[in-house]
Records
---
Amino acid sequence: MATFLYKLGRLAFRRRHFVALIWVALLTLAGVGAASAPSAGSTSFSIPGTEAQKAFDLLEQRFPGSSADGGTARVVFKAPAGEKMTDAANKATVEKTVKELSDGSEVVSVADPYQAHAVSENGTIAYASVRYEVPGMELKDASRDALEDAGQQARDAGLTVEIGGDALQAAPEAAASEVIGLAVAAVVLVITFGSLVAAGLPLLTALIGVGIGVSVITALANALDLGSTTSTLAMMIGLAVGIDYALFIVSRYRAELAEGRDREEAVGRATGTAGSAVVFAGLTVVIALAGLAVVNVPMLTKMGLAAAGTVVIAVLIALTMVPALLGYAGRKVKPAGEKGRFLGGRKKPAADEAASGNPAPAKPNMGTRWAGFVVRRPVAVLLLGVVGLGAAALPATSLELGLPDDGSQPTSTTQRRAYDLLSEGFGPGFNGPLMIVVDAKASDAPKNVVNDVTSEIKGLKDVVTVTPATYNKAGDTAMITVIPDSKPSSVSTEDLVHSIRDAGAEIKSDTDASVLVTGTTAMNIDFSQKLNDALVPYLILVVGLAFLLLILVFRSILVPLKAALGFLLSVLAALGAVVAVFQWGWLASLFGVEETGPVMSMMPIFMVGVVFGLAMDYEVFLVTRMREAYVHGESPSQAVVTGFRHSARVVVAAALIMIAVFAGFIGASESMVKMIGFGLAIAVLFDAFVVRMAIVPAVLALLGKRAWWLPKWLDRALPNVDVEGESLRTEADAGKDADADEDRELVRV
């Protein structure tokens, strides 16, 4: 592989005009496609195989035209102090608001609070339910404006009015902190390279890669039913790996220049060595993201595949466009150790000093000193790292999973205030009603079965209200709404769902009628359960495939095993931090978390996938340099120090860049994006600085030669991918020998 990538890098360097033109053309085509594509609608949320999804599908069949997936709004009214909603003036205001809402072009129905018995017992709070014919995200701006205007007119009449539901839902806004994250990344690159041009290359190529990836996602969003979170995730991952991969290659290029090689040869060797590490690091990320398909949740599968596609683009750009841009940059990208004039003048690279006949003694850099310290005290460093991550992981034992609802919105939003008003007037469970679907088609007496189901549910614990059944035209299917006594995300509500399903199983055995529980709350419960059930198979698949890949890269059994165990420590510690901030509320105000609650259901499996792929980036880039030194004759301890001397600075810079990019999304308006940004940033912090920079060298120092052991039969069976670039060194040595023979022949003559 190193030889192929070496040739590819040199070709891209020589044909840089052609390579740059291809990528610019692809960016232009993707941009035109995104601009001309129809706007994406709302993302359908389905969970195949769950009871809640089966019930939803049954409703679509038995109650056609009911707009089950249409947008909804709850306009909540509260009377002024000392008054009631049943007072004549307040009632007239509400009825006027209901009439105005009914005139909307996309409105299917509006339920009058006084006819639908939607007034609280104390008479101070009432609500009007509005149903639309299209999903909330597809509503026209005119419909949203009409909804807000109607509420404002009622406010002007003296009532407190808040609006809940998904009708006012909008695409998440970009946060200014995302730009700050990129700015931090730029500063880190400038400090790392000491050159504005060298620092700008990774940023430019990453932005081009993300531009292509996100534009393609936008162009296909409507056709493939991709939501806004999909492009946000692709942007987040694409920026991080795009900058890192380019950083790896530019850094190796500067090191090759410092050894005295010409620019084309340096590009080829950088692409052949660091490029090989980039390919395998990218493969681990792609495996982890594409493996999310194992969960069998379409939304999660699409998010994973879209992000994986962006990673593939980042790898291809690193292998082709980075060498091409290095050709354009020419002498503006300095050898390692030499700064641009703008940043402090010129320092002679090692090759120049050696050629002058007065080589200065090499001063150990920070990576060398740190690696030497770890090699001397591996047990202490290992214990400190493991204990520290273990302590950070402790909050994960209290992990509670759920999906965000209006109760998790900031208190400044009208959706959250509507949620609180409904809880005040009708109880906390009113915001999470359960919909019971009774399929009595196979029963001889459908109505008797429905009555039995209603009576059975009324007798269950934690039930406040059971509404009368609504039948379809055939009279063989009924809908019953159950209001729990507890809030939607509570354990009590989850227990109630299971109790209803247990009772339904008994009824089915007696009457052949099916009792299914659905609704947003039940969907969330089923979603969480499905993710929990898929976590272990997903771990086995992703970690297993990556383990085999790392055996191929490192030609070792213990190094990949150590990498996998270190990753698990990172993920558990990061989950503990997420629980501490988003569930317990520690330092919540610092991260803009206004409301604590359960951790998003997909967070554990999502972090496992993404963090595993990203953690292997550092593992591959750091440890391949160690193996390269070991293969070339250094002792195991010396190889660890050599690997850190060449790679520690770059890995630290790459980690800081990733942390900056991910942390930039903490300021996002959408709670899911905020939590993902924090979780990934803290996971990279733990993995890069504790696991890879401390635990990894400590373990390798303790293992010694055993770290690189591989059974002979397996060594013969595995193909030689030559990540270390041994073939390039062999060719160079052969070339030197040929030159020496030629010189001796000339001397004889």
Note: Residues 349-361, 733-749 have pLDDT under 50 and may be disordered.
---
Amino acid sequence: MGAEETTRTRRRAIPWLLIALWIGVLAVASPFASKLADVQHNRATDYLPASADSTQVAKIQDRLPGGESTELVLVYHRDGGLTAADRATAGKQIATIAGQHTLTGTPRGIPAKDGTTLMYPVTSNEPGTDEKKRDALVEDVRRVAHDQDGLSVDVGGPSALATDAGKVYDSLGGPLLYTTVAVVAVLLILIYRSPLLWLVPLVVAGTADFLSMGVAYGLNQAFGTTVSGQSQGVMTILVFGAGTDYALLLVSRYREELRRHERPYDAMRAALRGCGPAVLASSGTVAAGLLCLLAADLNSSRGMGPLGTVGVLCALAAMLTLLPAVLVLLGRRVFWPLVPAYGSTPKVRRSLFAAMGSSAGRRPRTVLAAGAVLLGALALGTLNLPGTVKQQDSFIDKPDSVVAMETLAKAYPERSAQPIDVITPADRADATLAAVRDTHGVASAQRGRTGGGWTEIAVTAAAPPQSAAETATIKELRHALKGSYVGGPSAQQIDLKDTNARDRLVVVPIVLLSVLLILVALLRSLVAPLILVTAVVAVWGAALGIGGLVFEPLFGFNGTDPGLGLLSFVFLVALGVDYGIFLMHRMREESLNGAEPAAAALTALRTTGGVIASAGLVLAATFAVLTNMGLVPLVELGFVISVGVLLDTFLVRTYLVTSASVALGRRVWWPGRLSRTPDPVRPRAAPELVS
């Protein structure tokens, strides 16, 4: 009796110890989590390819006298033509700006041939590499250079674009978090139909998000991991999306076990034994897939890998320790009003997933072929994807900087208002300048700063920014100027596109191989993992295809982000395999308990279908939050991943994977021992299942 009482005391103490441990961990992480925003950067070098010319230009410019240049273009425009008073107003505003800030050289106005526009290029080294000072300078210039008496004044240029993009990335902090929490809360209330239960996984996910911020800051300090607005926003989405998925699976299994065990502690132990391996494997595939981004040459992609992994692992730790502890302490009453009583049986009712499984089981080969044709047809939409999005087309709502660029493009069709930066060894500056001026497509070139053995040359192309002609000029400069670097905003876009193409060739095979190896280790099979990997690749192609059908015709996007293909692939493969693991792991469990292959597949679908559907809806909804952000690349990424998760949840898992498993029978477990058990005679039609 004493031993039994000791055991009970220990069981009561374990949840409290886990909660105390988490309080201690959060106390340690708190000072670091609050500092993550301070190390977040959205400068060009945080997104550019590590080895590209444009990256080297940006780094060398940082070391030149005065540091990084803040380059602006003030655009004065009147549709009917500028008046003498307009030109006087422009001169006064420029003089005020020059008096308040240290500018590089004296700004000189360049009138358009049609007389409607006057532009003043303005450059300052005053902010250096400090983003906050740069943004303050841009906003101060905008306050001085304002519309007056029908004269429109817009501030554009690379630095103004960067400031406007930074405002959007700043919204990935609080607003993104609040929106994500609200979306997940609504879905959990609908799923659980309980006034209390929905709050538990949400609070635990919030705890995991706070911890992930502290860990991310530690990685930045220890290893210099890039932290950008994009990567931090994706980390938050992964914590709530993946974490809630794990919570849904655990709570569902816990509810089952409460009917079989009298004490919540024993029920939770059984639930963790049952679904723990699947949760560990699913989080492992996501972490492995994200870490493969370390092989990317693009700084933004490489930085997203570790931060995304941190988010997933913090969510995993919270959902397998803190969530069980809280649920055990709250007991059965947390499920009120649908309390699972000990010894009770769930209400028998016809379930959607039983019906879907039965239809897939009757004609598995027909269902499989029809699904493959559908996914293949959707994937053809990728042929309709628009080309690479230009900088000025990256904003959903046009900011001041984009309006300025559009005005310049119309008023100055004969020249570019966006500089091409050439960095050359100082001892070859004169020869390089002459070679630049002799290059086809160059309108003008002049020497800039010199320092550290390098000289800066500012080049103006004759063609509009990011046009085919300007691209040809940049490539010709790079070919002709050996030992020099050619950068600037347009060159950066070229490097982003080329590097993303390279990264796809390198990262995609690594992701597939790592995910496949994890699945083989978990399922003790080669066939089942190949089915799951093939399925998620098909989903990725179909989701991108749907994007191709709607991005330009429906959303009006003029291009796609070069990184869309790679990032959507990594997320859809890693996250999509999650649901396959939930389904296949339960199928293997049923097979080990002696169920026939068809019955095992359909029972697994019946028991996990609701959880997978709920998890898929939550994950799709969290990524859909990105479609409310103000940048086209974020909207496209959120759309493709959300659509892919829904396809994976309601088509691939329920129909295609199930029908493939029924059609293959025990061969799905080849070469594991389950495949060697003789196949019993299967009925023509799969049994009707109820839940």
Note: Residues 264 and 330 are 9 Å apart (CA to CA).
